[in-house]
Amino acid sequence: MNTAALRARWETLAPREKLMVAATTALVVLVLVWLVALRPALNVLRSSERQQRELDAQVQQMMVLRQQARSLRSQPKLGRDEAQRLLEQSLRQRLGVSARLVYNGDRATVTLTGTPPDALANWITQARVDARALPSEAHLTRSANGQWNGTIVLSLPSR
Question: Does the reported pTM lie above 0.85?
Fold first, then answer.
């Protein structure tokens, strides 16, 4: 239908019918404005405070990591012998008898047997910071009681 035909049809409607068509049209326009413009904006507004808190937490975590990276870079170079000594010391302190250490060149292989998750996480952090040993491979399985078994291969500083 073209515009002229619509106008002619509009003119034939009774005032009551014109009012109903206008009200229906207004209702449809209001629903569309709500669905397209207002509801999405309100949803964003409602979730913005939560998202802001999450982003602030991420920024804080990134700042902590940046500071750790700076402090690691500023530490003096470590020789392999000193790195091995510190790695062995941290292994005894954190993991005790649940870990066994074998060296192969500039790599160290740690075999874990029934190691608690918290102790393993703390030891990896200490090995990275103190001995500058970086995990390069990990083949771990978690036992039914929640402890770790397997091997972790660490790269040691070069001589």
Answer: no
